């Protein structure tokens, strides 16, 4: 089987392993049942967004969907075991109740702030009891830890889905920047969670190990892309780690300005500043 055949086989396996009929599976990932059927038979391709939704709903990674392994080599760095999640389609590691609780908690934290969300709020939004929440997440700190892991997984899934067909490192780096902009929707929510994690990590050293593992994946992704671009001859001879530090610091700073509503800041100006930095510092005289 080629990669597309293997991908379809894995999705079919997941459809069979999930409760309900194919119709319910399609509805759960926000896809018309006819489009899902066509994708499964090979008359259309799964879009990157659809791959992310399949992975999210089923508790697997896009890397597993495409390559059959969570840690298969890809164009974006794989999360460390502490920050990542493992796919086990035969015994799905993320039950439907746990997935729903985590998605709800993550969204509430993004919208209201970590300290304004109570376990009772999560239970109410899920239509369940606080005892059920505590069964899956023994403490509120564990909820924040899992929200951070979800951020890492969402970014990893999105990057693998979007970038696995892009060979040119310059194009890939620009796309990575685009995927990191705090636009409305899930990207802005991810940024909101990151901001709160930064605050908690600065106050509680016990959280730093998971944070470091999580952030390290992003740094390795950028550095790997820069090294690939140098091998392709499209990037200048700069120190990849130094350029990564400068670029990610710029992303973080500009992202905070956008989220906090600094006058004159916007997603568009953030994109322009980042693209200008890449053109002047990384592409330069390549």
- Please report the total strand number as a whole number: 0
Shape: globular
Helical stretch count? 14
Helix content: 55-70%
SSE-based structural type: mainly alpha
Give the helices and strands, then pairings:
Blueprint: H1 3-17, H2 22-28, H3 33-41, H4 48-58, H5 62-67, H6 96-112, H7 119-126, H8 130-136, H9 140-163, H10 169-179, H11 186-203, H12 208-232, H13 240-259, H14 267-283
How is this structure best described in words?
The structure is a single chain. The protein has 286 residues and is an all-alpha fold. It is built from 14 helices and no strands. It has helices at 3-17, 22-28, 33-41, 48-58, 62-67, 96-112, 119-126, 130-136, 140-163, 169-179, 186-203, 208-232, 240-259, 267-283. Helix 4 packs antiparallel against helix 9, helix 6 (96-112) packs across helix 7 (119-126) and helix 6 crosses helix 11. The longest helix is centred in the last third of the chain and has 25 residues, at 208-232. It is globular, with a radius of gyration of 20 Å. The protein starts with a helix and ends with a helix.
């Amino acid at each position: 089987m080629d990669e597309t055949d293997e991908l379809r086989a894995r999705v079919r396996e997941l459809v069979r392993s999930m409760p309900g009929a194919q119709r319910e599976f399609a509805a759960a990932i926000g896809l018309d049942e006819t489009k899902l059927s066509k994708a499964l038979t090979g008359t259309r391709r799964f879009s990157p967004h659809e791959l992310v939704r399949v992975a999210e709903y089923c508790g697997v990674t896009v890397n597993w969907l495409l390559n059959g392994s969570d840690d298969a080599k890809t164009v974006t760095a794989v999360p460390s075991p502490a920050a990542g999640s493992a796919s086990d389609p035969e015994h799905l590691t993320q039950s439907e109740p746990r997935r729903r609780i985590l998605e709800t908690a993550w969204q509430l934290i993004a919208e209201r702030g970590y300290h304004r969300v109570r376990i009772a709020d999560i239970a109410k939004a899920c239509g369940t009891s606080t005892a059920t929440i505590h069964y899956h997440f023994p403490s509120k700190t564990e909820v924040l830890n899992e929200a951070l892991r979800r951020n890492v997984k969402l970014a990893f899934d999105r990057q693998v889905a979007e970038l696995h067909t892009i060979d040119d490192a310059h194009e890939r780096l620009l796309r990575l920047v685009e995927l990191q902009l705090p636009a409305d929707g899930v990207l802005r929510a991810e940024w909101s969670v990151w901001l709160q994690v930064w605050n908690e990590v600065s106050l509680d050293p016990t959280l730093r190990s998971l944070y470091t593992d999580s952030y390290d994946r992003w740094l390795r992704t950028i550095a790997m892309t820069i090294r690939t671009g140098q091998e392709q001859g499209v990037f200048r001879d700069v120190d990849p780690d130094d350029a990564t530090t400068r670029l990610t610091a710029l992303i973080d700073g500009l992202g905070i300005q956008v989220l906090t509503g600094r006058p004159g800041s916007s997603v568009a100006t953030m994109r322009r500043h980042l693209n200008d930095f890449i053109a002047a510092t990384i592409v330069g005289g390549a």
